[in-house]
């Protein structure tokens, strides 16, 4: 059963779409509409967005919409849910896909605007199960649109766009702000969206704020910054609006040039990274948010990541725990830019 | 210091020792990467040393080769995992039980993750009485036999243990026995009774319990040795299963059970060989002590080094034949009688498939 955009929008509206908010997913602004605040907030949480975070953004300017609503099997619009796993239909004309799990059926429409109709079918075991299904479906939708949401920082120095892919504690915020202080334009300190554009990739940031620890704040700013204190994973950090101090351009696409995999070690070291090693690092960085829907699926995923590593120079970066050595990072990035 | 010793340290999880080997002036990282690949362990090595000083001690070219093997391994394993999930659903819907052999079971349960061990196919075991039903289920799914059965499957199944099928480049071995030899007295009722549920990366399947997984690996390794196709990957699996078994269970009852099955001599010989290959006597002191009491025919001189160098030797293969608990004459007669059926039932020999990328040309 393949209802059209209009029919799905009518169905969503009939369920209620009063709970709304905005997500800035890199260069794509998404208007989230739902019958329940819990569904809306679950979608926001997928992209580390707090309710009301982008209240200044006019939702009517959003280039994408996500509707979340509960489907009634008797309405005849949705087919039976698959018993297990993830199922994705082949793309049809008009860039349209159906993504289904046992708890969620999503109709994705590419083009302008991008629309994702997420219909809950049945009752997920618990909130956690719902979040898992939601994550699987939404990340697959992103992937079908040639995008990945990465735990990464991004900067543009001169004409060169750098993306630093790393998990929590790998130094992303510190290095992106240090580069910002040296004149770079900061795209994001924690999350970046990459979009495939032929054989190249575009990078855009998801947030205009950076979260820093005390010692980094002292090192970069000298005196305490007047900013909100947040607790992330049991660690207190200052949430600093990047644009107040440095050049910031989070929601615009930049052509990716350098892909760097940082970690905090014992001394500053940088080395070119073999493509196969970069590919393994990207698999590790993205695999948790992806599920496959058939034996041919891993190949498509690998093809995407292979194109990504081939499109950029790849480096392994070891950061020193001594913040004074950030100067060496700045010098390296500056040299590369010139 | 040899490549085998460096690999042994990695298999044992002794990565400090491995890094020390790698920093030795005589160590050639590129040669080591080639050695690991030849034994179908390049992807395993990459996963085992990732982020450790051993990785840092390797040359860029060696790291690239190992990482490339890991990517191939990851892609193949993911593809097999997806296929297994669909096969499991088809068998469950048809109420046709099967046991997953090796593959994802070994990778997840004994090596720590889907991508930690190289795989080339799916192996499933069905009850002999379910064989025809299982075959039709697979054929309905699009599998085709990649080998023929001489004089029909009913007769061929007396001399072989599995038939090979393939669908879209995915090989699947359908077993009705773990291994086949007239001297073995494997208790399949017990094997089926002791199977356990297992989450194979999203596929809810049955697998062998640790004792029978170990027994199967021992017998399969001996068979590969007999055929001259064994690699150190088989022994790395044996090491990992032994580690799990040794942590929970006693060895004497294990060998008592193998004695009843007429497989004790083979089990003792393969486990002793594994200890020698991986310098692991100290890791498994209880097993080593037990092996002293279950003496098997002494291994040929320099067998360990020949295995490491993948040199085939007729003497080594005959030694493996001599492990069957029957006379050489009877073993030889069965070998000759079963040969046409075994040859007809196999599309290829069981040579290394890691580098051949049988599931398509993945990067």
Short structural description:
Chain A is α+β, with helices and mostly antiparallel strands and about 350 residues long.
Provide an overview of this structure.
The complex is a heterodimer of chains A (338) and B (363). Helices cover 28% and strands 33% of the residues of chain A. The relative contact order of chain A is 0.12. By secondary structure, chain A is of the alpha+beta class. In chain A, helix 2 (37-46) links the parallel strand 2 (28-34) and strand 3 (64-70). In chain A, helix 6 crosses helix 7 (297-311). The longest helix of chain A has 18 residues, at 127-144. In chain A, the strands form three sheets. In chain A, strands 8, 9, 10, 11, 12, 16, 17, 18, 19 and 20 form a ten-stranded mixed sheet that branches. By secondary structure, chain B is an alpha/beta fold. Chain B contains 18 helices and seven strands. In chain B, strands 3-4-5-2-1-7-6 form a seven-stranded mixed sheet. In chain B, strand 4 and strand 5 (170-175) form a beta hairpin. In chain B, helix 1 (3-12) packs across helix 3 (29-38), helix 4 (42-49) packs across helix 6 (60-93) and helix 11 runs antiparallel to helix 12 (232-248). The longest helix of chain B is centred in the first third of the chain and has 34 residues, at 60-93. Chain B is globular and about 60 Å long. The two termini of chain B are 33 Å apart. Chain A binds chain B through residues 83-85, 271-272, 274-277, 279-280, 283, 292-299, 302, 306, and chain B through 46, 50, 60, 63-65, 67-68, 70-71, 74-75, 78-83, 85-86, 89, 168, 170, 202, 360, 362-363.
């Amino acid at each position: 059963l393949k209802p059209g955009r209009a029919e799905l929008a009518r169905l969503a509206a009939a369920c209620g779409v009063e709970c709304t908010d905005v997500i800035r997913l890199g260069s794509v602004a998404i208007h989230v509409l739902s019958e329940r605040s819990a569904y809306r907030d679950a979608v926001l949480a997928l992209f580390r967005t707090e309710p009301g975070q982008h209240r200044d953004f006019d939702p009517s300017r959003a280039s994408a919409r996500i509707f979340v609503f509960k489907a009634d099997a008797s309405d005849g619009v949705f087919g039976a849910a698959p018993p297990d796993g993830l199922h994705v239909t082949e793309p049809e004309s008009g860039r349209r896909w159906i993504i289904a799990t046992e708890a969620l059926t999503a109709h994705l429409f590419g083009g302008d605007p991008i629309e994702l109709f997420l219909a809950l079918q049945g009752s997920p075991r618990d909130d956690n199960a719902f979040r898992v299904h939601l994550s699987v479906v939404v990340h697959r939708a992103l992937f079908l649109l040639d995008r990945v949401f990465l735990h990464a920082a991004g900067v543009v120095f001169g004409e060169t766009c750098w993306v630093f892919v790393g998990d929590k504690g790998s130094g992303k915020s510190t290095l992106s702000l240090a580069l910002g202080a040296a004149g770079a334009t900061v795209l994001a300190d924690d999350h970046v969206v990459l979009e495939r554009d032929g054989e190249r990739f575009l990078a855009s940031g998801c947030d205009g704020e950076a979260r820093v620890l005390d010692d980094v704040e002292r090192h970069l700013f000298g005196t305490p910054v007047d900013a909100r204190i947040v607790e992330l994973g049991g660690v207190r950090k200052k949430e600093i609006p990047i644009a107040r101090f440095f050049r910031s351009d989070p929601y615009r696409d930049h052509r990716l040039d350098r892909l760097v995999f940082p970690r905090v070690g014992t001394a500053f070291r940088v080395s070119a990274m073999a493509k196969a090693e970069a590919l393994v690092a990207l698999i590790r960085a993205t695999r948790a948010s992806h599920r496959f829907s058939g034996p041919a699926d891993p190949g498509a995923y690998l093809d995407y990541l292979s194109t990504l590593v081939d499109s950029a120079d790849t480096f392994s970066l070891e950061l020193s725990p001594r913040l004074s050595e950030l100067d060496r990072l700045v010098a390296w990035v500056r040299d590369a830019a010139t | 210091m040899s490549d085998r010793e460096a690999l042994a340290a990695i298999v044992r999880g002794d990565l400090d020792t491995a890094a020390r080997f790698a920093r030795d002036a005589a160590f050639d990282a590129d040669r080591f990467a080639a050695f690991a690949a030849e034994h179908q362990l390049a992807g395993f090595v990459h996963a085992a040393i990732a982020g450790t000083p051993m990785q840092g001690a390797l040359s860029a070219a060696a790291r690239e080769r190992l990482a490339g093997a890991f990517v191939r391994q990851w892609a193949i394993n993911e593809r097999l995992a997806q296929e297994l999930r669909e096969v499991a659903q088809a068998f469950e819907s048809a109420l046709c039980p099967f046991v997953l052999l090796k593959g994802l079971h070994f990778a997840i349960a004994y090596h720590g993750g889907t991508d930690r061990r190289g795989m080339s196919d799916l192996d499933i075991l069905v009850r002999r009485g379910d064989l025809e039903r299982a075959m039709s289920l697979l054929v309905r799914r699009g599998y085709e036999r990649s080998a023929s059965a001489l004089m029909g499957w009913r007769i061929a199944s007396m001399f072989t243990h599995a038939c090979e099928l393939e669908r879209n480049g995915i090989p699947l071995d359908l077993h009705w026995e773990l291994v086949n030899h007239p001297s073995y007295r494997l208790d399949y009722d017990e094997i089926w009774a002791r199977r356990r549920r297992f989450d194979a990366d999203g596929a809810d399947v049955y697998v062998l319990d640790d004792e029978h997984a170990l027994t199967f690996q021992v017998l399969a390794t001996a068979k590969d040795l007999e055929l001259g196709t064994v690699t150190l990957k088989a022994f790395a699996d044996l090491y990992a299963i032994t580690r799990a078994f040794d942590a929970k269970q006693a060895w004497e009852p294990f060998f008592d059970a193998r004695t009843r099955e007429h497989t004790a001599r083979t089990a003792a010989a393969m486990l002793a060989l594994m200890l020698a290959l991986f310098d692991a006597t100290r890791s498994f002191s209880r097993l080593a002590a037990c092996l002293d009491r279950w003496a098997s025919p002494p291994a040929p001189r320099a067998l360990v080094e020949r295995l490491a160098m993948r040199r085939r030797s007729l003497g080594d293969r005959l030694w493996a034949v001599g492990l069957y608990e029957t006379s050489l004459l009877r073993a030889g007669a069965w070998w000759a009688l079963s040969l046409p059926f075994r040859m007809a039932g196999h599309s290829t020999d069981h040579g290394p498939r890691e580098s051949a990328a049988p599931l398509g040309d993945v990067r």
